Amino acid sequence: MTISFGTFSKLTAGLMIAAMVASCGNKEQVKTSAPATTASAAKATEPIVFVNSDSLVSNYNYFKDIKTRLEAKSKKAQQDLSSKGTAFQREVADYQQKAQGMSADERASTEQRLARKQQELEAFNQNASSALANESAGENEKLYDKVAEYLKAYAKEKGYKMVLTYSKSNPSLLFADESLDVTTEVVKGLNDKYAKDKK
Q: From the record, what ranges are coiled-coil (predicted)?
């Protein structure tokens, strides 16, 4: 009887990363080079602007805190699974060494017990992965709501009619003048608000 531990590590990390990426794009930062004065002048007269979600995600402190917390939970779950798995494999090895000296009933009883333990280990793996995926999805929803709520107020204050989003991993916005990029200003506002909310 054997069990693989690599699956849990890849699955939990994959679930967390996939959930974050689906909501906000990846962490690659696309830099803009428009001078601040030109950008400010253009933004004051343009009804449509955009936010680079790659830069937003990599610079928004709330997202960084979520990522750190979920990574810590994933690491702990992996350590727990690894510990349980190591103990289980020791029991299997011990049984294999002693099997020849056991009666048929003892072997059957031990094999049934080990089979139950393996099922419990697999259930632990699945439950931990599901719990992490659910928490990640919930955090992504909160993240989306925070950004959307802030942008709604921000657009109203600045007189923008629309705020688009750009991500290198999902480029639905193929081109926009760099003077329309309000990412830096939005990230600063989000971080300021988050800092106040934490107090």
A: 107-134
